[in-house]
Design a protein that fits this description.
By secondary structure, the chain is of the alpha/beta class. It is built from seven helices and five strands.
Length: 149
């Protein structure tokens, strides 16, 4: 089975932000995963977070894209990656993770991604924030820069 990676929102956003210093790491790491025939996934949560930041004004820490530009960028993600559906299995994993790891506040979002990964047997996440997933021992968090040698 080829390697399976969930692509975190922070990587997806940097793919579309050519002026950001991390853009090249996001772009090259995705190309490396593609060259290794890795399966790449995203979730509804990733898509919603992507749209939120992509269409938010620059002065409010967004990318300032129009809805049409964001739709085009999201379409590229949809064509190159597979959506992991939310279902009752994801929910069960999520509820379990919340209690086992004493999840609070904003950490709930990372737990939801981890739950989707566990429910759909995706062992790795490509993320610029590997420390956010350290509490989940069955998940490997991979920083894009570590793939580039």
């Amino acid at each position: 089975m080829p390697p399976r990676f969930l692509i975190d929102t922070n990587v997806l956003l940097r793919l579309t932000a050519a002026k950001e210093p991390a853009h090249i790491f996001a772009q090259q790491s995705i190309r490396i995963l593609q060259s290794r025939s890795s399966s790449m996934f995203y979730t509804l949560q990733n898509a919603a977070e992507f749209w939120n930041v992509a269409t938010r004004p620059v002065e409010r820490n967004g990318h300032g894209l129009s809805p049409a530009e964001a739709a085009e960028a999201l379409s590229r993600i949809e064509m190159s990656m597979t959506l992991l559906p939310d279902d009752s299995n994801v929910y069960s994993h999520w509820r379990h993770l919340l209690e086992v790891h004493n999840i609070r506040g904003v950490q709930v979002h990372d737990a939801k991604l981890a739950a989707a990964m566990l429910a759909h047997n995706v062992p790795s996440i490509l993320t610029f924030n590997a420390s956010d997933f350290a509490r989940f021992s069955s998940i490997e968090a991979v920083h894009p820069a570590t793939l580039i040698v």
